[in-house]
Design goal:
Elements (H helix, E strand, L loop, with lengths): L7 H4 L9 H18 L1 E3 H11 L3 H13 L3 E3 L22 H7 L8 H8 L8 H20 E11 L9 E12 L13 E15 L12 E4 L14 E4 L10 E14 L4 E16 L17 E19 L5 E17 L19 E4 L2 E4 L3 H11 L15 E3 L22 E5 L3 E12 L2 E12 L1 E2 L4 H4 L58 E2 L2 E12 L2 H4 L6 E15 L35 E9 L1
Parallel strand pairs: 1-2
Antiparallel strand pairs: 3-4, 4-5, 5-8, 6-7, 8-9, 9-10, 10-11, 11-16, 12-15, 13-14, 16-17, 17-20, 18-19, 20-21, 21-22
Length: 618
């Protein structure tokens, strides 16, 4: 809401001469045209016309009907709610209903028919015109000082009982600076084109506990009564379990963020937007446990052993306008991206590619490049001879229907090497599971009481390796974890299979390799089955109609809207139909979940929903 300094002429103080009917009609038409352009009129604009033209009750009713029929909304410029938090040198009246407002205004005599009508429709100005002059000027002066250059600083001190003494408290400072260049005097020549141009800069720190237990720095021992799986003197014995190793030095993670931003508004704020770029450092993050020999016999403890750096940006841009024939419309688009890198991680001295590596990006997917599925035994043998065999990653039995992997290191045989950065055999980075370019698109329009809105959301880039039994159907977990879904029918078979008269035709151009219970050699992480989890989804659709105020006011209703709404109506994605792009990593995420179904994407499905409703305000 913009509040500007107004002169007596702009406020149109009460006229002292009789105004002709022709002039009143012209003023009505001009006011309504102005409302059509912006989609709304302020209560002050209407009150100025009422006072200037000295309207009676019938004329006021005519003006009100013209505003309603043009579907123009009315906003109150000087409500106490809109002015909340703005420093003023005058006392603002409290929020009141129409009757109380009339009572506190000296000029609102109850015998004035115009004031009585305004009271009946709930539109009585909080202040008299003379008071509004003083208030507007003072708001503009104070607002101008506050909005040119902005500065704010904060300091917080957080503590927790989860950590040991000496590591319990975290001091977190932050500050922000802003410069609204469009409020400067030298910007007046550009104000018609650029209404807002604000630069922002900020820095802040926050602490993060990142713990699962209440007291993660104390080692627990689990005692259970009669819980043993054997008998002693005819009874099950009591048992005691040693807890995991712990780190007594566990403490807060510190998140430091630098941010720079720009906000703008062009063409009377019809074109608006903002851009932010940031760098976030996570110091002393609780990272994966350090590598220790398997002879330890127990899991290594997690410690504050890692530093991360995230670089990201976000863009929002929107257009809002109204056509000459009265249709309002708008579009708003936002997109953001971020990439995270390991700054420090001493827990991986061998540079194993299965955990964090200093200097590498989070989310890297290492796997084989797939040549294809061998359609014949001869094709497979020719491939094996070319690459030097694939026995290092399988049972040694490679036939038609099995996967052919590409040679990356030029050495004989397809291998994984030592799975380190220096020796990773024929593995390579085939993708990254970090979602990239999150976006949202909001489209809306309204015309003569009708309104429509469509909201799309999605991710432009995301690689995902889905290695669960739900994806493969048949795998290393044996027949009891097998999953037979429609998509799994597209598997390799070089000849028809099935009972006589009910055979399933051969399929040598299949998506899946031949099913095998004896080996996972066809299910290695690879490019062929790497999923493209990018998507766009119509998240929400609304269509509504608001009944004219002149029709419903007679029955004591101020607003009545009929609408139909839909959720998750359409999705565009290249992802396997077995999964939903928003829940592909969901399902049973418990650390103790069985391997075949852990994070298998078997979450409760998102529902496509239609709803119909009626919204009424009295």
């Amino acid at each position: 809401m913009r509040i500007q300094t107004m002169s007596n002429n702009e406020l149109h103080l009460p006229a002292q001469q009789q105004v002709s009917e022709e002039k009143k009609n012209a003023a009505f038409k001009k006011l309504v045209e102005r409302g059509k352009q912006s989609g709304h009129l302020s209560a002050q604009e209407i009150d100025n016309v009422i006072v200037e033209l000295d309207l009676d009750v019938d004329e006021l009713e005519k003006l009100n009907e013209m505003i309603d029929s043009a579907n123009i909304s009315i906003v109150d410029d000087f409500s106490a709610e809109a002015l909340d938090g703005i420093p003023l040198e005058v006392d603002l009246p409290k929020e009141t209903d129409a009757a109380e407002t009339v009572a506190i205004n000296d000029n609102a005599a109850m015998d004035d028919p115009v004031k009585v009508y305004l009271k009946e429709i709930g539109r009585v100005p909080l202040l008299t015109p003379e008071e509004e002059i003083e208030l507007a000027i003072r708001i503009a002066d104070n607002d101008e000082k506050a909005k040119k250059r902005l500065a704010e600083a904060n300091l917080r001190y957080d503590g927790t009982s989860r950590f040991r003494r000496g590591n319990r408290w975290q001091l977190s400072p932050s500050f922000s600076l802003g410069w609204n260049i469009a409020q400067e005097n030298f910007w007046e020549d550009f104000a018609d084109v650029c209404n807002q141009l604000k630069f922002r800069f900020s820095y802040g720190e926050l602490g993060n506990m990142n713990t699962n237990g209440w007291y993660p720095t104390y080692r627990a021992m689990t005692l259970k009564q009669a819980n043993g799986s054997w008998l002693q003197n005819g009874l099950k014995p009591n048992t005691a379990y040693v807890g995991d190793l712990i780190s007594t030095a566990l403490t807060w993670e510190k998140v430091r963020t630098w941010n720079i931003g720009l906000d703008w508004g062009l063409f009377n704020n019809r074109l608006t937007g903002s851009f932010d770029a940031y760098i976030r450092y996570t110091d002393n993050m609780v990272g994966p446990s350090v590598e220790l020999p398997a002879t330890l016999g127990i899991a290594t403890p997690k410690t504050n052993n890692c530093d991360l750096k995230t670089k990201g940006w976000e863009l929002t841009i929107g257009w809002q306008d109204r056509t000459n024939f009265g249709m309002g419309y708008g579009i708003k688009f936002n997109v953001s991206d971020a990439r995270t890198y390991i700054d420090r991680y001493p827990g991986n001295p061998t540079n194993s590619i299965n955990t964090y590596i200093a200097g590498r990006e989070i989310g890297e997917i290492w796997g084989f490049e797939t040549v294809g599925i061998a359609k014949t035994d001869d094709e497979m043998q020719a491939h094996l001879n070319k690459v030097g065999g694939q026995s290092a990653i399988g049972s040694g039995v490679w036939t038609a229907g099995d996967i052919m992997y590409a040679d990356q290191d030029g050495k004989p045989g397809i291998t994984k090497g030592a799975q380190t950065l220096e020796d990773h055999g024929d593995l390579k980075v085939i993708g990254n599971n970090t979602p990239r370019y999150h976006f949202g698109l909001d489209l809306n329009a309204n015309y003569k009481g009708f309104d429509v809105r469509l909201f799309f959301q999605g991710v432009m880039k995301r690689d995902y390796w889905q290695g669960s039994n739900i994806f493969w159907g048949v795998g290393q977990w044996g027949m009891w974890w097998s999953t037979g879904l429609k998509e799994h029918e597209d598997y390799f078979r070089d000849e028809p299979v099935g009972l006589a008269g009910h055979e399933i035709a051969a399929n040598v151009n299949s998506y899946y390799a031949r099913p095998r219970f004896d080996s996972t050699q066809n299910q290695e992480t690879q490019t062929r089955y790497l999923q493209d989890a990018s998507y766009i989804r119509l998240k929400n659709f609304q269509l509504g109609y608001t009944l004219p105020a002149s029709m419903i006011r007679k029955i004591g209703i101020t607003n009545c809207r009929i609408f139909v709404s839909g959720e998750n109506l359409w999705t565009g994605t290249k992802l396997s139909k077995l999964f939903d792009p928003e829940t592909i990593s969901g399902g049973n995420t418990d650390s103790n979940a069985s391997a075949p179904i852990k994070s298998a994407g078997n979450a409760y499905p998102l529902s496509r929903t239609w709803s119909f409703g009626l919204s009424v305000s009295l």
